[in-house]
Amino acid sequence: MNTTIQDPTDAQMIAVAGFTLHQQDANVEMEQRQALLEAQAKRIAELQDEIKTREDEVTGIKNTILDQWQPGKYAAGSLTVQVKEGAKTINATKFTKTFPPTEYPDLYKLAPDSKEARKQLGEQQLAPVMASRKPSVVIA
């Protein structure tokens, strides 16, 4: 039994139906990918909160130890706790005022100014000397 299409809009609907099914498949896949991304982002945020809580706890415990113990090594059961003095660093502003580069040039290092290099040379000219860091994901 042959079916004839009487109304041209029926033919259009049948022709569009195949596209509509493919479009629906793509929409479902995109919705699934979006749902997965949302779940992954939520889990990362939860883990980051847990990490922050634990880091805060560790920092508090370390601060207590620093307040109670002098620098040195101490037995703590099967562990050893080492309390160290803070590293001594140079305050760059004070150093430059006290030891100006014009008088003490050998105390300074010349380093590229990436912001100025981009401004003057542009990304294309810098491309051969650029390095890329590992890609990252940030959840906010």
Oligomeric state of this protein: single chain
Count of all domains: 1
Largest sheet: 2 strands, antiparallel
Strand content range: 5-15%
Average the pLDDT over all residues and give the rounded result: 86
Which segments are poorly predicted (pLDDT under 50) over 5 or more consecutive residues? none
Computed CA radius of gyration, to the nearest angstrom: 32 Å
| Termini gap | 62 Å
Shape: flat
User: How many DSSP-defined strands?
Assistant: 2
Keywords: Coiled coil
Structure description:
The protein has a two-stranded antiparallel sheet with strand order 1-2. It has helices spanning 8-68, 92-98, 114-126, and strands at 72-76, 79-83. The protein is built from three helices and two strands. It has one domain (11-122). Helices cover 58% and strands 7% of the residues. The two termini are 62 Å apart. It is flat, with a radius of gyration of 32 Å. By secondary structure, the chain is mainly alpha-helical. The longest helix has 61 residues, at 8-68.
